[in-house]
Design goal:
The protein has about 240 residues and is an alpha+beta fold. The strands form 3 sheets. A 6-stranded antiparallel β-sheet has the order 7-5-4-10-9-8, with helices on both faces. It contains 9 helices and 10 strands.
Length: about 240
């Protein structure tokens, strides 16, 4: 059995051009809806007239980012796969073998997350093959930086600030963060920052499990995995 934690989308900031912001918002809504969305649903969610929605959708179709099915509903297109494939490619390629091994050793889902503005975003997620039951979540899932082990670990890589929470200060001091129930009710999280010199986006390994013993006993193992990924990226 696999359980996927519920995500939470934060409001768009610094929207810039209204047309661009609406187009990106529409793309985001469509990629989050496997069953697809109708133009009426998109128009209502954007708070825009159907004519405007049609124009936005037409542009996204032209760039192969979405596609219109025979049922008239819009779904993610092949262009989104190409974009995802090129994102953090070197880092993901170096990390995936290490994450797979770690996931099977711990019997828990292991992910690589980066900081984007004030959110933690999963760019690689590996589930264990060694157990029948585990928590899981999708690549591209995101949650606010002020919550969860990954959020605290990523925030600890940024320059110290008077607004840092106690959890961030502790993560910066200890080199890891452990939380309980901050993102998924009842779940424990363990996150270790990656020591990547010159990395534009703060990055961490995150372990999520319902078993407290796993996170308490695995800090050094996860720390070594983070160091291994960092060496592979920088060599």
């Amino acid at each position: 059995m696999i359980k996927e934690p519920g995500g939470e989308r934060t409001p768009i900031r610094n929207s810039g051009s209204q047309t661009l912001a609406r187009g990106l918002t529409a793309l985001q809504m469509i990629t989050d809806a496997p069953e697809g969305l109708s133009v009426q649903e998109i128009s209502e969610r954007l708070g825009a007239h159907r004519t405007i929605a049609y124009r936005l959708l037409g542009t996204l179709v032209d760039f192969h980012l979405i596609t219109r099915g025979a049922d008239g509903r819009y779904r993610a297109g092949a262009g989104t796969v190409a974009l995802a494939r090129n994102y953090q490619t070197v880092l993901r390629d170096a990390a995936l073998p290490v994450l797979r091994r770690l996931a099977d050793e711990l019997g828990s889902t292991v992910a690589l997350l980066v900081a984007e503005l004030d959110e933690a975003v999963a760019i690689a997620v590996v589930t264990p093959q060694s157990v029948d039951y585990h928590l899981a979540f999708r690549e591209g899932s995101r949650h606010p930086l002020h919550r969860g082990a990954a959020g605290h670990a990523l925030s600890s890589l940024r320059a110290p600030s008077p607004t840092d929470t106690e959890a961030v200060v502790r993560a910066r001091r200890d080199g890891y963060a452990i939380t309980h129930g901050e993102v998924e009710p009842g779940a424990y999280g363990l996150s270790v920052p990656l020591p990547l010199a010159g990395q534009a986006s703060p990055t961490c390994i995150n372990v999520i499990t319902y078993r407290e013993g796993i996170v308490r006993e695995s800090v050094e193992r996860v720390r070594k995995a983070a160091e291994e990924i960092a060496r592979a990226v920088q060599n």
